[in-house]
Amino acid sequence: MKTISRLRFAHLPTPIEELPRLSSTLGGPRLMVKRDDQTGLAFGGNKTRKLEFLVAEAQEQGAKMLISAGAIQSNHCRQTAAAAAKFGFECVLVLTGQLPEQASANLLLDELFGAKIVNVADRADRDHVLKETFDKAASEGKKPYLVPYGGSSPTGALGYAFAMEEFMKQNIHADWIVFGTSSGGTHAGLVLGQRVFGFKGRVLGISIDESEEWLKEHVSRLASDASEKFGERIEFTSADVLANADYCRAGYGVLTDAEREAVKLFASKEGLLLDPVYTGRAAAGLIDLVRKGFFQKGETVLFWHTGGQPAVFAEKYQFDLLK
Question: How far is CA 213 from the centre of its chain?
Fold first, then answer.
């Protein structure tokens, strides 16, 4: 295996816990959770694993600034801003959506970490503004490094390839791993790790906002590209990627009764907090699949908790969650 640059600042390995009361309530398979909400950087989350590799790459390239983009309440941007502060980079975040009068939740944390916010009202303009922001920083000699949306590049995907190795070393049997998928980096890493480290179960991504067809094509390509980091390219196809897009029709960040129920069930039965956008939607999909008998009762299903809890305190979700 090639030497892969990595900064080790995540709190690893993250624990795995039983969910006995939730399992009993749903009357389905044995449910467990892997707590990547406890990775340690700025309230944790899945992006911390990716940033161990992305920030190492930025340092190798002599970068002085990290630039990234996301929604106003982006978990990815919050962790990127924290990593920038921790390692002495300037940070610029291009955030789409309406800026609230008072910063809260992830946006408040972005500002505490010292990130400069560039607001874009329309998401359709984000990529253009992001490129302009990057080019301006480069022309001013600030040596920017572009942290891709969601940390989802071949370098970022390595975080979850090695997360699969970590999981297997914990010697916990799982027939299924279920998690939220959007920009595809976590998904691609787990698919790659499944192949490289020999996981025999199935890896199912519950889509947050993308079609099944897009995820299958994008994740398989990203996993193939990331495999080159190990020294030899592995070709993945759409058939290697399991994705379910039945639960994202309401749109990104739109809270429905399914997400509300999922957040409340995990909280009231296990004392476990989810976020309304990502883990809440992924858990809603998991709960519905259990109720439909998609999983066999004798199977073990591991829910991979990717973090995001600060979003619970965002003004737009604070009261809506309790309806």
Answer: 19
pTM: 0.96
**Domain 47-150 falls in which CATH fold?**
Rossmann fold (3.40.50)
Q: What percent of the chain has pLDDT over 70?
A: 100
Helix (H) or strand (E) holding 118: strand 116-120
> Which pLDDT band, with edges at 50, 70 and 90, does 316 fall under?
confident
Could you state, in order of their start, the residue ranges of all structural domains in the chain?
Answer: 16-45+152-322, 47-150
Confidence of residue 1 (pLDDT cuts 50, 70, 90): low
Contacts of 108 (CB under 8 A, 6+ apart): none
* Domain 16-45+152-322 and domain 47-150 have a common topology: yes
Q: Which residue has the tokens 């992001």?
A: 130
The DSSP-derived string for 157-218 is: HHHHHHHHHHHHHTT---SEEEEEESSSHHHHHHHHHHHHHT--SEEEEEESSS-HHHHHHH
Average pLDDT over residues 185-190: 98
Q: Considering just the CA atoms, what is the radius of gyration of the chain in Å? A: 19
Residue type, 91: C
- CB 44, CB 83: distance < 8 Å: no
The answer for residues whose C-beta is within 8 angstroms of residue 89's C-beta and 6 or more apart is: 55, 58, 63, 64, 65, 66, 83, 145
Q: Is the pLDDT of residue 318 over 80?
A: no
Catalytic residues: 74
What is the CATH topology of the domain spanning 16-45+152-322? Rossmann fold (3.40.50)
Question: Does residue 299 register a pLDDT over 80?
Answer: yes
